[in-house]
Specification:
With 209 residues, the protein is α+β, with helices and mostly antiparallel strands. The N and C termini lie far apart (40 Å).
Length: 209
């Protein structure tokens, strides 16, 4: 199943390290950072699980719930978490989905047969409170994710929703933003009373608080 931006994130029921969940109910009114791993007790995955745990405050400040997935059992996950906590100097509390039968990994197209027929690649799904997929990223198994970029994208998505803007290349919070071409100059006067710079009729930049 190929999932695209704007699609409804498939719901599922699964056992996790925090107990059984129904995915949509678990998300509730929050955003979700759903990310998969090839296997427990692997080096890159251990650092990524640790980094997600270390960034718990950053995710919480953005109303984002992290949830991991690996094609192993809850018991294996819980033993692995002890290693994550010990080696990454953290206390991991977010749930990790147990997916030994690959049902969720298949539902979310996380199994790429030319890489592995049994292990999930490093997939990322950012899902909004309406349960819509807002971003997908896929990393190979031997490359760790860039968590600065994951937080940056979440900031950009949430700002775009709140302020009717788009963000330019390499945008960082506090930087100038783009007024979308779908917003006319007349509409922009009300939405952006601070004004804007018109570089081209289709390229208008402004500041937002």
């Amino acid at each position: 199943m190929t999932l695209r931006i704007g699609d409804l994130a498939p719901d599922f029921q699964a056992d996790t390290t925090a107990g059984p969940i129904s995915f949509h109910d678990w998300i509730g009114s929050s955003w979700a950072f759903f990310f998969s791993h090839p296997a427990d007790f692997t080096p890159v995955c251990t650092t990524e699980m640790g980094r997600t745990s270390q960034l718990a405050g950053e995710f919480s400040a953005r109303n984002v719930k992290p949830i991991g997935l690996s094609t192993d059992t809850v018991e294996e996950h819980r033993t692995w978490v002890l290693d994550v906590n010990d080696t990454q100097n953290t206390t991991l509390t977010f749930p990790i989905v147990a997916d030994k039968d690959h049902k969720v990994a298949t539902l979310y197209d996380m199994i790429h047969p030319n890489a592995s027929t049994t292990a999930a690649v490093r997939s990322v799904f950012i899902i909004d409170p309406d349960k819509k997929i807002r971003l997908t990223m896929t990393y190979p198994m031997n490359v760790g994710r860039n968590f600065d970029e994951i937080l940056r994208v979440i900031d950009a998505l949430q700002l775009a929703d709140a302020k009717t803007v788009a963000t330019p290349a390499d945008w960082r919070p506090g930087g100038k933003v783009i007024i979308p071409p779908s917003v006319t100059n007349e509409q922009a006067k009300d939405i952006f009373p601070q004004g804007w710079e018109e570089i081209r009729p289709y390229l208008r930049v402004t500041d937002v608080n």
